[in-house]
């Protein structure tokens, strides 16, 4: 039989280990809006969630796995991390000077986070906006 101290350590390890079952539960719902400021195609809204303190990229992957209408690609930059390349088959282009920008509507204001999809940790009431734009 396990002593209470050993049992406490075992439970703590389950919670702290990356990929442990206790950390996989989706607890933070979020709305993801795909908008296009260049060609003005209709907006598309999706619902997904992230695990506790999970990154946006994880929620986007979860959405892509569960909803065939949402697809995205990204490239990995050695200095800046994941860089969103395309959403729903619409790709940014240096020739056309287009790109996907990350915006977050926090209810009373829309912000441009200083991190990307690989580092942004959504809050429960965030509306994530992936906006196709020109520079």
UniProtKB/TrEMBL annotation:
One Pfam family cited in the UniProt record for this chain: DUF4430
InterPro entries documented for this protein: Cobalamin_Transport, Transcobalamin-like_C
Cellular compartments per GO CC: extracellular space
GO terms for MF: cobalamin binding
Signal peptide: 1-22
GO biological process terms, semicolon-separated: cobalamin transport
Domain called Transcobalamin-like C-terminal: residue spans: 66-133
Domain of life: Eukaryota
Keyword Signal: yes
UniProtKB keywords: Signal
Protein's recorded name: Transcobalamin-like C-terminal domain-containing protein
Native species: Eleginops maclovinus
């Amino acid at each position: 039989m396990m002593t209470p101290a050993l049992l406490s350590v075992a439970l703590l390890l389950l919670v702290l280990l990356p990929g442990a079952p206790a950390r996989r539960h989706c607890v933070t719902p979020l709305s993801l809006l795909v908008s296009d400021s260049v060609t003005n195609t209709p907006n598309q809204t999706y619902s997904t969630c992230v695990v506790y303190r999970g990154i946006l990229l994880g929620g986007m992957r979860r959405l892509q796995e569960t909803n065939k209408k949402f697809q995205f690609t990204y490239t990995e930059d050695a200095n800046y991390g994941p860089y969103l390349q395309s959403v729903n088959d619409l790709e940014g282009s240096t020739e056309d000077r287009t790109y996907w920008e990350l915006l977050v509507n926090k209810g009373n204001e829309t912000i441009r986070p200083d991190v990307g999809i690989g580092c942004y940790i959504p809050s429960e009431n965030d509306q994530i906006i992936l906006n196709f734009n020109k520079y």
